[in-house]
Amino acid sequence: MRNKTGKLFQNIQTRKVSAYEYIKKNEYFAFVEMIQKQGNNQCIFTSDIMIKFMEHFLYEHNAKITAINFMVEDESLQEEIFALLNKMDKQPAFWDRLKRKLLSLSEDNCIEIQSVDFKCSDDGFLLSLMVNGLFTVTDSSYYKVADELSSLMEVLIK
Question: In terms of pTM, does the model score above 0.85?
Answer without folding.
Answer: yes
